[in-house]
Structures are given as structure tokens and as C-alpha cells.
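Hi R.,

Here's the input for the fe (iii) ion complex you asked about:
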Amino acid sequence: MARTNARITASVYTSHVPAIGAAIDHGKTGEPYWQPVFKGYEFSKRWMKDNTPDVILLVYNDHASAFSLELIPTFAIGCAAEFAPADEGYGARPVPQVIGHAELAAHVAQSVIQEDFDLTIVNRMDVDHGLTVPLSLLCGQPQVWPCRVIPFAVNVVQYPPPSGRRCFMLGQAIRRAVESYDEPLRVQVWGTGGMSHQLQGPRAGLINREFDNAFLDRLIADPERLSKMPHIDYVREAGSEGIELVMWLIARGAMADVAGGAKPTVVHRFYHVPASNTAVGHLILENKP
Ligand code: DHB
Ligand code: FE
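And here is the predicted structure with fe (iii) ion in place:
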């Protein structure tokens, strides 16, 4: 019998530095400082063209653009038909509107909330560099984004953020939700942010290559164990903004092996320091068909 339900084909992991978006928007990707960063995404752009999904469930964090200190949901799912690029102080990025997938988003909300994860349902939200920079890195500068995108925002900005463990379990619940959606959609789950960086305080500028590379190794080989790493280790080793890395565990938790299936194929791995204040890490993992 032909398969009719949605399935998760791959997961993508990438940093989301705003200066990367500015370099793309202002035609600076060929400059010596930026060239090595964008070289790491050349393969990814080809891969994305060859493996365009129907929908990306894009896990990212809002940086006080859509939310503020007045209201901070731990997990929020964008159920709107579309989402505008946010004005983060320099005008909105000149990138296309993000077209959502309200039906799948509503289904994921229904399924995941009924499995005891409290998601905030968002019917109107602008999306900032946390979401648009990863899209630019993988999709380039198209007139319209090549697929639908469900924004999935995680609080890693105001203490306390969710634990890595909870993020990993949420990824598993998202997988079950997608696989119970009655339409043959190809879905990718992206985990964004990180890697090591600290933007403030006496340790501003902190980068930890050793930690980052071990994180990539562990994310691939033993995410279950990695998910138990406490917050304080992220902050100590990867800096105050390094906590963004917990979002990568949501995407990893959605992969087949975590549910007893085959190990994913590592189709691409890249690491580069620095981009702005941040260590750039990037991975593409494919589920076996
Ligand atoms: C930088 C990195 C971030 O993750 C962010 O949200 C803002 C700035 C940076 O490296 O400059
Ligand atoms: Fe950030």
C-alpha cells in the first residue's frame, strides 16, 4: 500500500548570526572575511535544491522581536498562513514573506499538546534573524522561499529556558505528530542557533571550539546522552548565548533512530570560527528513505 502520511526526511542544524543575513543582503558574501563562512553552505544550497521538502518545521528563537519581556512563551508554534520578516532596528530584511502551513501546524499543536507539551499557539508573529538567516543560508536569495515553513519558537533568551532533555522529548513528540498527519508531505525539522557565543558581560566574545566539536560528535552519535547535559554546562562551556544549542536537540529528537529506526546519514558537517561573535556550526542529517 502506498504511504500516505507525512514523514520527516531530514534535519538541518545551523547557527543564525544576524551579520550573516546582513552580508547576504548587502552583497558581501565574497569578501575575505565572509567567504569561508559561505563556502561551508555551498553544498547545503545544492542539497536543498535537490531535496526541497514540502514543509520545514523551523525551530528557532525569537530575540525580543515578536515577543518581549512582557510575554515569553517557552515553546510557541506559528499556526498562521504567513509570517512577515521582523524589523530588528534596521528595517525588515529584504527577504520573502514566510508562508506557513496552518493545517500541519494545527495538527502538530493538537498532537503535541495532547502528549503533554504545552505549546503556545501563535496566529500572528513576525520572524526575526533566528528564522530568516538559516533560510537564507540554505536557500539563497529566491523571490519566494522554496517551501512552506512552520515557525517554532523556543525561549532561550530569558531564564529559565527548557532543558535539553525536554527539547529532545519534544522532538520525539513532533515526529509522532508529523507521522500521524494524513497527507504525504516531506517534512524537514531544523534546529538553529548556537554554537558557542557570549554577547555580553566579562566573557563577551567567548568561543569554545573543543566543546562545539564534541557537541556535534555527540549530537550525531548519542543525542540521548547529550540531552541530559545540564544548562550550567552550556553556559559555562559555550557562553550565555550558547544555550541556543538546546534547540538542536528538538530537531535531533525528531529523527528516525531515536524512535528505534535506522541511524541517520551525515550528509554534511561544517564548522567555522568566527562569524561576528559566534562559532558557526552546521550539520545535515538524512533519514534513510
Ligand atoms: C550574534 C549571534 C546571535 O545568536 C544573535 O542572536 C545576535 C548576534 C553575533 O554573533 O553577533
Ligand atoms: Fe541568537
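One thing worth noting: The chain has ten helices and ten strands.

Cheers,
M.
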